[in-house]
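Researcher: Re-running this chain for the archive, since the previous output was lost when a drive failed. Same request as before.
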Amino acid sequence: MATIFDVADLAGVSIKTVSRVLNGSTSVRATTIEKVRAAMSELDYRPSSAARELRKGKSNAIGMLFGDPSSGFQSRLHHAALQACNDAGYFLTAGLFREEEDNWDEQLTQFLNRTSIEKMILVPPLCGSTALHDRLIEQGASFVLVSPSRAVAVAHAVCMDDRRAAREITEHLLGLGHRRIAHITGPSDHAATRLRREGFEDAMRAVGDGALRPDWIRPGLFRFKPALECARQILTGPDRPTAIFAANDEMAAAVCFAANSLGLRVPDDLSVVGFDDVAIATTMWPPLTTVAQPYAQMARESVRLLTEVGPPGDAGQAAEKVTIDHALKVRQSTAALAD
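Model: Regenerated structure tokens:
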């Protein structure tokens, strides 16, 4: 792909001159403009609209920061945001951000300065950081929170009802006749962990008869390896559950791996459900019954709130909270309890 340097070399002019031509400067001679345009045509050079906006001191882009862009949830949401921004005529600029590091403030400042971003989409767990919110406000950036742990007066929010979704997928297992159900949770400081556990417990308590087993609720940290250890401990105990609800799909895949290594068949001997509906849910075997997050709708609403609705506080604008419906995807990892 040709660059501005290639155009300058072919036209025999400086990069600064090419930049002036791109920006429509009237100080460049007509013959020079023609040489630059001819070089651009020969090289099939297409200047970046985002770069032009940055040169003008503004950004036609929306920013996102990811602590773990490889995670299934963040990856799916990133892809959905790319599409939503493209449909709305915006660019998406993503950055890697380590909030736990001492220099997080410097990371944020560098990202904002390099990109001139004025609008941000914050995803979990970053969306729960008050310090991050305060710093963005100081920088004059507006932001939308995706699945925040609490309402924030200075930002709009987009979410689904994790607690209701967790209750529904647990009720799916109960409807298949399962009563001995374990739950593998995420990190204790994540709002999603708390909400999904509460939904699980709501459904189990409704059954009564001591169906809720605290010793079968284990922390898998939303990661494969910790969840694998949890599953092995649960499945090799003196008694074992007939179903396991893992609070995300990566952990559910670990449960299936553990079951297989112990000679248990999914779903004949053990039903397994997850949460999120990321890529692994349909590429593993058997395909995973799970809760599908409304990634596309959440991304579209986030972009709409940033670009069409004023930030909370502007002209009396109140913070909006948009809750989007989820979907239960029933696949082959669950089955009725055998007699």
